Amino acid sequence: MNIMNVKKRVTVLLVTILITSCVQNDDFDIPVLAIEESVIPESGIIGIGAVLGSLAQEQLKDDAEAIITFDTPDQFVQGYVISSDRAGNFFKELIIQNAKENPTAGIRIAIDVNPMFTSYEFGRKVYIKLAGLSLGISNGVPTLGVLDGKVIGQIPSFSQNEYIIRSSEITTITPLELGIEDFSNNKLSMFIKINDVQFNKDAVLGTTTHTFAAEPTDQYDGERILESCTLGYSCILSTSTFSDFKGVLLPEKQGSIEGILTKNFFGDAFNIVINDPTALVFDNPERFDFSCGTADIAGTTVLFSDDFETQTNRKPITGNGWTIFTQEGTETWEAYTSDGTNPSQGISARVSSYGSEDERTIAWLVTPSINLDQQEGETLHFETSNSFADLSNLDIVFSKNWDGNPTTIANARWITLSEGYIIQNSDDFDEWYSSGIIDLSCETGVVYIAFRYTGSDTEDFDGTYELDNISIDYN
């Protein structure tokens, strides 16, 4: 064999080895690396809650876009990793919380590193050096990174080991159990568990079951409605269209979900993001749906109605079988009329947390009992308006097991009437919007229908809703 052929064969062999070794494959084992435990004095550790508190103080003095920059040497925050990019649902971010169970604070770290799960496994304790980093609100979530003009940018990859120090401790994370109704800004970036939830029936009970994030309309993220099977509240499960499980079908049953509480890209709505599909345990076949849909025309005979014209302006709604109940806070449904730029239709029912100074507001307006077995073809119609709803929420729910006692409202099972349209914050605040005609005819038994308002005195959640021309009819 001549020397040139030997060289060619060796070259081909080397190229083949190089090509094979460069094939991208994220399904690999995490390397076992020895960690030399860093000695960080307790005096240099600042709690995540304290760091977030410092930002909140600056926001009060300055504005919601305030940013603080750390320059004191040898200061660290410590926490436990609760995010994982192994399945591709997180990208160039690390989320930590301050305790392995019953956390009280969490924070996001923006860093130009991918993947991260090979170094920062779920449950690993880490220390974040603060000097040189800045903290601000990014996409509605407190985020640590480097200051890039007037925004929080990513920590450069070459600074990874300078700012993030691994501990040898890897622990079990116990999720914080919350109801959707308990979501708040001070629960952001925590690993939570929500029990008794299901996906909206339109995504799983129609002719085609939706995937997590592989529908033609999904861009960047797939957003799927999760509904509480106990109190009727709903939230969004957000999944990246780059995740490994984007094409997995959503489960039809109900159950529990574990994930991180965060916000959407615009920072104006709470989202749940999971590390991978094992976070869902949907093993209960019993669903709670209102599935009559909409009707083409309303019933011809009035069963219950109210236009609130007999109410006294600025006084709580009374009479006509209504139950009003303030579950949290001090605000309630009251009669209201206005001739300004947001005119009422005569007198309407209004509720608002604006100026209440209440940390949280939940106010109920409930119809008298409606017996759906005594007639046929029942329908519901109403109209809504608002004054800058912000992130406050009005939803329409019904219950078949509430006993009529206001003090037991929170313990009853309420199911969302998802077909009825309610004015959105993006709609014109000086207009009134029809709910459409909601078909009630497939339900049976005695039900209560409730208009439930959720808000607070914080700027993001302090909106106002008005309600008018409610009519339940039948044929």
TrEMBL record:
Looking at the record, the residues that make up the DUF5689 domain are 69-277
Can the keyword Signal be found in this entry's annotation? yes
Any keyword Signal? yes
User: Which keywords has UniProt assigned to this entry?
Assistant: Signal
Q: Quick one: signal sequence residues?
A: 1-25
> Pfam families from the entry?
DUF5689
Domain of life, per lineage: Bacteria
Looking up InterPro entries in the UniProt record yields: DUF5689 (IPR043744)
Write down what this protein is called: DUF5689 domain-containing protein
Species annotation = Aquimarina addita
Organism lineage string = Bacteria, Pseudomonadati, Bacteroidota, Flavobacteriia, Flavobacteriales
